[in-house]
Specification:
Number of domains: 1
Number of strands: 8
Helix content: 25-40%
Radius of gyration: 18 Å
Structural class: alpha+beta
Distance between the termini: 19 Å
Order of helices and strands: EHEEHHEEEHHEEH
Shape: flat
Largest sheet: 8 strands, antiparallel
Length: 191
């Protein structure tokens, strides 16, 4: 989960005090954020196969006599959501490689009332970083915005609204078949 600031932490109280003294739309200073491992992935680098295999399905083979607790059901649902998002990325690997797309870059944020993902750029196999105005020509049918959403979802499951603020950046690498959650604070916050 990228750089995070949430309710229950001393830094959150400091941020709430800042909001009271402002117009209510103040972004927390970078110094209040802490990097936290992604919720679902629990790692900063996820590997995906270069061929997708079968779509992940809900595993109902639990032989326990007790039905799963609501929390266990919730965590299984989140894990399935994340697994399907990673599978979606794997599904377009061959298409991206055929078009010469090596890496896709994006950002994500969440908390408060909503969450967002942002597609930023692509790097081609020949090393070119394609400017936004040329993206459609180079990607030719690859939905890079959905790729970024799927990558963030594969790392974190859902990352919607709540009493927190988070910011992250990620890279999908189709040569290495990885999704990487960026830990460099300067990259995440565009410094």
């Amino acid at each position: 989960m990228p750089y995070y600031l949430g309710e229950g932490e001393p830094e959150w109280d400091e941020y709430m005090n800042m909001l009271e003294d402002s117009d209510g739309h103040t972004e927390p200073p970078i110094s209040l954020f802490k990097y936290v491992e992604p919720w679902i992935a629990t790692t900063t680098v996820l590997q995906f196969p270069d061929t997708p295999g079968p779509q992940p399905e809900e595993n109902n083979t639990d032989s326990s006599p007790q039905p799963p607790s609501p929390f266990e059901s919730f965590m299984r649902e989140r894990k399935l959501f994340a697994d399907r998002a990673l599978w979606n990325i794997s599904r377009v690997t061959a298409k991206c490689r055929a078009r010469g797309i090596k890496r896709v870059f994006g950002d994500y944020d969440g908390g408060g009332d909503e969450s967002f993902t942002y597609f930023r750029s692509i790097e081609m196999s020949d090393g070119r970083v394609v400017p936004m105005e040329s993206i459609r020509t180079e990607t030719n049918g690859v939905d890079c915005e959905k790729l970024i959403l799927d990558a963030a979802s594969a790392l974190m499951g859902y990352f919607d609204a709540g009493e927190f603020v988070l910011h992250g950046a990620l890279v999908i690498d189709f040569d290495a078949c990885t999704v990487t959650d960026e830990k460099d604070v300067n990259v995440v916050f565009g410094q």
